[in-house]
Amino acid sequence: MSNLTSSYDELADVYHATVDPDGAGLDDPTFDELVGDPRGQRVAAVACGQGREARRLADLGAQVVGIDASEPMLAHARALEAQTPRGIEYLHGNAHDLQPLADASFDGVACHMALMDIPELEPTIRSVARILKPGGWFVASIIHPCYKSPAHGDLVDHVEGTYRRIAGRYFEEGPHTSLTRWEILPRVSYHRTLSTYINTLVSAGLQLTRLAEPVGDKPVWKEAAGVLYFSCRAMAAGR
């Protein structure tokens, strides 16, 4: 039995009850647009949690392997797979090394809203590059590092009546505790600058092909981007 644990272990039940408890899969048009048509492709869902994006990728026609560090989250994913089989395989593993996954064995990798909860970015991205075939794609989404920096807070402009986002401590990379995070998420997350994300991708041999910053559905996120998406291509085997 692996001793690998996750900050999501104790949150798994409440997370599952709140996020896709019926197993319909991820509903995210920006994610779908960046992934494109994965029919017939072998795709890894890294840090898949209870399997939202894995189910969406399978529904789009991909052959999916989900991997996550939290066994309690994977238990929910496997239960939903047993309830409505999509052919998804779920593995317990660390995003830092993706040890159960072989080199150059995937056409694509997705990591939805998880990199900011993973302690070490560089080994994670290098592991993603390692498991991708040359030319394979990587699509990820993260909390926007520029507008959700460690100094959180919304501000109402009392002249215009519009919302603004207070950003601060942007250059202070590393773990930080946020009292404003959604209650189903760990209190501690890991802030990195935008340049750290981009330079880490490039250093791992992943060529950035597109960024997306969709407008949110809350007033403050109509003024500043809350989520950042990126897509990349593996130019060579992970090095």
What would you say this structure looks like, in words?
The protein has six helices and eleven strands. The chain has helices at residues 12-18, 29-35, 52-59, 71-83, 121-131, 194-203, and strands at 42-46, 63-68, 89-92, 106-112, 132-143, 154-156, 163-165, 174-177, 188-191, 206-212, 227-234. It has a seven-stranded mixed β-sheet with strand order 3-2-1-4-5-11-10, sandwiched between helices. A two-stranded antiparallel sheet has the order 6-7. Helix 4 (71-83) links the parallel strand 2 and strand 3. The chain is globular.
Tags for this entry?
Rossmann fold; 239 residues; 6 helices; alpha/beta; 7-stranded mixed beta sheet
Quick summary:
This protein has 239 residues and is α/β, with parallel strands linked by helices. The chain contains 6 helices and 11 strands. It has a single domain, classed as Rossmann fold (3-Layer(aba) Sandwich), CATH 3.40.50.150.
